[in-house]
């Protein structure tokens, strides 16, 4: 399965980056496009990966029959799709070819055709990797499904996580041998068509290649299959599960770190607040009623102020000198009375 090495593109810059990579890929020959497709979807293809190789042969032959060099127009691509077991109505073929023409050049190259041919497989891989809810109906092998070009493009350039270098090397060796063999065969076939001694020699060489090279190709296929089985144990679903667990652990660790930070900040601000309150604590002043008076300045003694309480009871009678004068007068009056 194709699982993400990097997060899926969400910005316009990342989409442009994918489009740039795609433009670079379609500028290469059919075998180079085949090689990249195999690297990206080797696990999804399973044992049917050789069918993709057979399609590349048919595609190149069809190019030659249509006198095309690298790609097909939409009508030609629709016919090739029909010839290879992907039957659709004329309208469905037209819409799907337009949808899969990712560089909008009106042409369908081999990798674009593969995205159309294996559309259902690639979309399932996309939704399995992203864990998003599937919005397309793939019950009929994706027939008639459109509007999924960006998803197919993203999944094409999302190579399997932990892809074994030996598997990559085996794929590259397989396609290199295949390219060299087909190139040599094409030259010999042209020579054989001329006839004569050279033509006969070319036919003999072709027959030898058919027996010898097939044995060599089978050996390479065995190597590729062995590398694929070994790589499957360390890639694909296992790698995705490992990545998910690592992400969950990282998320929990990040959450705990945030909680610890908040607790530390709360403790720090709590201590600072307490210290500030201690410094700015208001001094307690006792209640002073109407009968309490202060003498002089209040002197602080601890948190309480030192107060001096004096009696405010009103004085009895008149002033002392008045009392004395009255007393004297009373005494004189009393004396006069006694004389009489």
TrEMBL record:
Positions of the UniProt region annotated as Disordered: 231-259, 285-340
Name listed for the protein in its UniProt record: Calcium-regulated actin-bundling protein C-terminal domain-containing protein
Compositional bias (Basic residues): 294-312
Organism of derivation: Bigelowiella natans
GO BP of this protein: actin crosslink formation; parallel actin filament bundle assembly
PANTHER family assigned: EF-HAND DOMAIN-CONTAINING PROTEIN, TOLA PROTEIN
Superkingdom assignment: Eukaryota
Keyword terms: Calcium
Keyword Repeat tagged: no
UniProt-listed PROSITE patterns: EF_HAND_1
Feature: compositional bias, Basic and acidic residues: 240-251
Stretches assigned to the Calcium-regulated actin-bundling protein C-terminal domain: 169-252
GO cellular component: cortical cytoskeleton
Pfam family for this entry, one: F_actin_bund_C
GO MF annotations, alphabetized: actin filament binding
InterPro entries from the UniProt entry: Calcium-reg_actin-bundling (IPR053356), EF-hand-dom_pair (IPR011992), EF_Hand_1_Ca_BS (IPR018247), F_actin_bund_C (IPR040810)
């Amino acid at each position: 399965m194709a699982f993400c090495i990097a997060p899926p593109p969400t910005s316009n810059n990342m989409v442009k980056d994918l489009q740039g990579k795609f433009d670079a890929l379609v500028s290469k020959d059919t075998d180079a496009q085949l090689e990249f497709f195999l690297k990206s979807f080797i696990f999804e293809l399973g044992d049917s990966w050789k069918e993709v190789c057979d399609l590349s042969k048919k595609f190149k032959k069809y190019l030659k029959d249509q006198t095309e060099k690298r790609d097909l127009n939409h009508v030609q691509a629709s016919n090739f799709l029909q010839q290879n077991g992907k039957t659709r109505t004329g309208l469905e073929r037209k819409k799907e070819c337009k949808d899969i023409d990712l560089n909008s050049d009106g042409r369908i190259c081999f990798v674009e055709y593969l995205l159309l041919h294996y559309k259902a497989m690639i979309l399932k891989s996309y939704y399995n990797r992203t864990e998003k809810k599937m919005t397309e109906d793939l019950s009929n092998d994706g027939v008639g499904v459109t509007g999924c070009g960006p998803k197919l493009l993203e999944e094409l350039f999302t190579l399997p996580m932990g892809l074994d270098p030996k598997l990559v090397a085996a794929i590259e060796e397989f396609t290199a041998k295949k390219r060299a063999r087909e190139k040599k065969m094409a030259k010999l076939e042209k020579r054989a068509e001329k006839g004569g001694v050279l033509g006969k020699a070319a036919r003999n060489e072709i027959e030898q290649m058919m027996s010898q090279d097939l044995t060599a190709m089978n050996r390479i296929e065995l190597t590729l299959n062995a590398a694929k089985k070994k790589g499957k144990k360390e890639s694909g679903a296992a790698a995705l599960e490992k990545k998910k667990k690592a992400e969950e652990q990282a998320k929990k660790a990040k959450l705990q770190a945030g909680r610890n930070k908040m607790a530390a900040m709360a403790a720090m601000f709590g201590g600072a607040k307490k210290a500030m309150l201690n410094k700015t604590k208001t001094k307690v002043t006792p209640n002073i009623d109407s009968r309490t008076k202060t003498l002089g300045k209040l002197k602080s003694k601890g948190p309480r102020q030192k107060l001096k309480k004096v009696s405010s009871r009103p004085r009895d009678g008149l002033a002392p000198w008045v009392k004395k004068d009255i007393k004297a007068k009373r005494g004189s009056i009393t004396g006069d009375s006694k004389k009489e």
